[in-house]
Design brief:
Blueprint: E1 3-8, H1 12-27, E2 31-32, E3 41-46, H2 51-65, H3 68-71, E4 74-79, H4 88-92, E5 96-100, H5 108-116, E6 122-124, E7 147-151, E8 153-154, H6 165-169, E9 173-174, H7 177-189, E10 194-198, E11 206-208, E12 215-217, H8 218-228, E13 233-237, H9 246-254, E14 261-263, H10 271-277, H11 283-296, E15 301-308, H12 315-328, E16 332-337, H13 345-349, H14 356-378, E17 385-393, E18 399-402, E19 408-412, E20 422-430, E21 435-441
Parallel strand pairs: 1-2, 1-3, 3-4, 4-5, 5-6, 7-10, 10-13, 14-15, 15-16, 19-21
Antiparallel strand pairs: 8-9, 11-12, 17-18, 17-20, 18-19, 20-21
Length: 442
């Protein structure tokens, strides 16, 4: 039982967790492999944010159960969805051996040893913990070669009515600055071009510098990381409209290696819906915040999230969201249909009363509007030369990368390029997906 394979579902935080799991098991003498068939241990790192996330795990387990060769291996379910599971899972999928949630990954080697000596099913879940794995350097075998992420905090105290994360991840806990910087140094040494700082509401990061005793908030952490890693692009996610400090915008403006992009989820443009969601701000307050940010950084890329079909959302309330999107002209929008999660406030107080077909229709309306706005915004780059880092190359020889404003760029080159090369691309075409051109200079 020396080879393990891990499949990751969900957000960037889960990818970070998978890298931690790889490091823990590697230190215990096990070897990571890229294929289920080569593994003795199969790990499914699960997500709980939306219903389709845990459905994917159930579907994957069903597929494994139909394959006698795979089902005979040691099967482990990890991730935030594991926080919601009980030993009933072992009855439904009797070939699953271990269920362990994000606070208990250090125990994986011991749990696997117990399986080796004859245990059949083990469930290990700790619902709240300050465990941040700050002393463990991720192996970086799963992430791409350009961007590496660091979990600087986990959990959430906000408790939006629709969100399961405070249940599955627990309360807010932040890593100390020293451990974050140690991981930054490791990322730089491995040759990554970009560092992404990750937290559920990253604006609420706070720590105390052990040397100076100084309180470090997120604006200060962002500044410290940017100055520690001057050759890397720095990005962060996600922010919350209630807690975004304008000092963060000033730090972005004063540091050329911090990407000019902010992820600020609005979720809805209707105040009544925002109240039912327990978001804590009004549409007017959100509009004012966006206005202030654009005055500080006029060309700032602003990405938002929109959730359609939340409990009781009327057609008129949905149209308020459409009007907000038209007014604020976001650079990109992540669109989601509301998915009711048990153990949330919404589950206790409200009914999931918007028809699923109507949710899909509303989501498509927002997506179409988003694509139209992106296309019109991208047209301003026609004929311009922009700096891009090469991130990938497809089978047709076309390269992909992003600029400092997080625009997707697809381009060709007359000479071979390597991943992480910095190039200047001349933009000749645009679409709602991104900018298209060819290398102008290197």
């Amino acid at each position: 039982m020396n080879h393990f394979y891990i499949e990751t579902y969900g957000c960037r935080m889960n990818i970070c967790d998978s890298e931690v799991i790889v490091a823990i098991l590697s230190k215990a003498g096990m070897k990571y492999v890229n294929s289920m068939s080569d593994a003795d241990v199969i790990i499914l790192n699960s997500c709980s944010v939306r219903e389709d996330g845990h459905n994917k795990i159930y579907e994957r387990l069903t597929e494994i159960g139909k394959n006698a060769n795979l089902a005979s291996k040691v099967i482990v379910v990890t991730g935030c969805f594991a926080s919601l599971l009980t030993d009933k899972l072992f009855k439904q999928y009797d070939f699953v051996n271990i269920v362990v949630n994000p606070n208990c990954y250090r125990q994986l080697p011991d749990l696997l040893q117990q399986i080796r000596v004859g245990k059949d099913h083990l469930l290990k879940s700790l619902m709240d913990s300050d465990e941040m794995y700050g002393d463990i350097l991720p192996q970086r075998v799963i992430e791409d070669r350009t961007t590496a992420a660091i979990n600087v905090m986990k959990g959430c105290n906000q408790c939006c009515s629709y969100c399961i994360e405070p249940v599955t991840r627990g309360h807010e806990h932040c890593r100390d600055v020293e451990s974050v910087l140690k991981e930054c140094d490791d990322i730089v040494s491995l040759g990554y071009r970009e560092i992404t700082l990750v937290g559920h509401i990253i604006d609420k990061y706070h720590s105390i510098d052990s040397k100076s005793g100084k309180n470090i908030d997120f604006a200060e952490l962002l500044k410290i990381v940017a100055e520690r890693c001057p050759e890397q692009r720095i990005k962060f996610l996600s922010s919350h409209p209630l807690f975004f400090d304008e000092r963060i915008a000033q730090i972005i403006l004063s540091h050329p290696n911090i990407m000019r992009v902010v992820h600020l989820p609005v979720q809805s443009g209707a105040n009544k819906v925002l109240r039912r969601m327990d978001r804590g701000y009004t549409k007017e307050q959100f509009v004012e915040l966006i206005g202030r940010l654009r005055r500080v950084i006029p060309d700032l890329t602003i990405i938002t999230d929109v959730m359609v079909g939340f409990c009781g959302e009327s057609h008129e309330e949905f149209e308020e969201t459409v009007d907000l999107v038209k007014s604020l002209q976001f650079d990109d929008i992540n669109v989601f249909c509301f998915s009711m999660r048990s153990r949330t406030k919404a589950f206790k107080l409200y009914a999931d009363d918007v028809d699923e077909e109507e949710k899909i229709k509303r989501a498509q309306t927002v997506k179409d509007l988003r694509d139209s706005i992106k296309y019109q915004k991208n047209k301003r780059f026609l004929g311009q030369r922009i700096g891009v880092i090469v991130e990938s190359k497809d089978n047709l020889g076309r390269y992909y990368g992003r600029d400092m404003f997080h625009h997707s760029v697809y381009f060709t080159s007359d000479i071979p390029l390597a991943i992480n090369d910095k190039v200047i691309v001349l933009v000749k075409e645009v679409s709602c997906q991104g900018l298209i051109g060819n290398v102008y200079s290197i």
